Amino acid sequence: MEGDPTLCLRVFDLNCWAIRYLSKRRQERVRLIGDTLRQEGFDLVLLQEVWSERDYSDLKAKLGGCYPFSHYFRSGVIGSGLCVFSRFPILDTLLYQYSLNGYPYMLQHGDWFCGKSVGLVLAWGGHNHFAPRSCQLHAEYCREKDAYLPHRLVQAWELAQFIRHTSKAADVVLLGGDLNMHPEDVGIRLLRGWTGLRDAFAEATRFEGCEDGCTLVPNNCFTVKTELLPFPLGIRIDYILYKAISSFTVKCEELKTTTGTAPGMDIPFSDHEAVMATLHIRRQGQAVGDNLGTAEPTLADVVTEARTEVGVGLRAAQRQRYSTGRMAVLALLLLLLQAVAALGALAGLAAGQPFPKLSFSLLAFLAIGILLLATGLHLFHTMEVKMLQGTEEQMRMALRALQEHL
Question: What is the strand order of the sheet 129-136 is part of?
Answer without folding.
Answer: 90-97, 117-124, 129-136, 172-178, 238-244, 198-199
